[in-house]
Amino acid sequence: MSGIQTFTMIKPVAVKNNYIGPILHMINEAGFRIKAMKFTHLTKQQAMVFYSVHEGKSFFEDLTSFMSSGPIVAAILEKDNAVADFRQLIGATDPAKAEQGTIRKLYAESMSHNAVHGSDSDENAIIESDFFFSKMERY
Ligand code: IDP
Ligand code: MG
């Protein structure tokens, strides 16, 4: 059974390019409800903890430097089948391979600067949501 919760970040490049509004609009239009949200700036150390599953990979240093290079928008999103439906809305990791009309196709600059994060499983959606939000910050 698939859960009703996923976690997203609007990455520094999309914030810098003034795409917070259009991306949130697409998220709402696709039927997701915003359960929690914050505008924040990760430290390098926090980015390394958040992405620790990728530790040791060739892109880990670039990824964590980039994700701590500027402010991000973090949010918990609710919808039936949230994880899979959100992955479909954002498109492939590499925007060159992302389908037309997806968030990454529209707003990403490159594979490393690909506009948004989306959880890859119900389990990780919970871990990632708990990384950013206390119970009192969820509505
Ligand atoms: P995902 O964000 O689509 O789930 P992951 O494989 O979990 O993709 O990778 C996390 C992030 O790391 C990606 O969104 C992307 O920004 C970056 N990344 C992944 N693979 C590469 C790569 O081969 N080169 C550069 N950056 C990468
Ligand atoms: Mg991932």
Descriptive notes:
There is one protein chain. By secondary structure, the chain is of the alpha+beta class. It has one domain: Alpha-Beta Plaits. Helix content is 40%, strand content 17%. It is built from seven helices and four strands; from the N terminus they run βααβααβααβα. It has helices spanning 12-16, 20-29, 44-50, 60-67, 82-90, 103-107, 122-132, and strands at 5-10, 33-40, 72-78, 116-118. It has a four-stranded antiparallel sheet. The radius of gyration is 14 Å and the shape is globular. The two termini are 23 Å apart. 32% of the residues are buried. Residues 59, 63, 93, 111-112, 114, 117, 120 line the site of inosine-5'-diphosphate.
Task: List key phrases describing it.
Alpha-Beta Plaits, alpha+beta, binds magnesium ion, 4 strands, binds inosine-5'-diphosphate, 139 residues, single chain
